[in-house]
Design goal:
Blueprint lengths: L1 H18 L3 E10 L2 E9 L6 H17 L1 H4 L3 E6 L10 H6 L4 E6 L5 E8 L3 E6 L2 E6 L3 E6 L8 H23 L1
Parallel strand pairs: 2-3
Antiparallel strand pairs: 1-2, 4-5, 4-8, 5-6, 6-7
């Protein structure tokens, strides 16, 4: 029942979150005693602060109240941003992790660390072991941002920035043909 309920609520919640200027990252509905617990995870390219979480919470709450027939019971709403340990599963996750250090576990082979560059349609540029390579999304079993306590090396950022600019120029040339 909660999964079915989440499926029915998703378009309502997604529209409210989009209206507030954010992306719906995930929606989960769980039974919590007599109430439903509606967990909404939102994200954006600029991150999500506490004030934005409050704004999204008000917007989603109003949308749920307008569609109370879908829930048909009391609910508790929990709105949050994704945690640092959220796997990178979509292109926008990779785009938002630009210049971050990521542990990549490929479908085949050993896990490795790489710094994220340009996130394209089918692959992401990664600086790993001093080399820039394209990693196809479908070849990644799991990828998670690693916590860094110091600034990344400037030469790594420069290499990725230069490479991303070259890739953007290449894309523009191909579009103009």
């Amino acid at each position: 029942m909660p999964n079915e309920l989440a499926s029915r609520l998703e378009p309502i919640v997604a529209e409210a979150v989009t209206t507030a200027g954010f992306d719906l990252d995930s929606l989960e509905v769980q039974q919590a005693g007599r109430r439903q617990l509606v967990k909404v995870v939102v994200d954006s390219d600029d991150g999500v602060g506490l004030d934005e979480v409050a704004e999204v919470s008000r917007t989603v709450s109003a949308a749920l109240d307008e569609n109370e027939h879908v829930l048909a019971s009391a609910y508790t709403l929990e709105v949050t941003s994704p945690g640092l340990d959220r796997p990178l599963t979509q292109r926008r996750h990779w785009r938002r992790a630009r210049f971050r250090l990521v542990k990549i576990t490929p479908v085949e082979g050993s896990a490795y660390l790489g710094r994220v560059g340009h996130a394209g349609e089918k692959s992401v540029r990664v600086l790993a072991d001093g080399r820039i390579k394209d990693v196809h999304y479908r070849s990644v079993a799991k990828a998670v941002v690693e916590v860094e306590f110091k600034q990344p090396p400037a030469e790594d950022l420069k290499a990725l920035a230069d490479d991303s600019a070259a890739e953007d120029d290449k894309d523009k040339k191909e579009e103009s043909k």
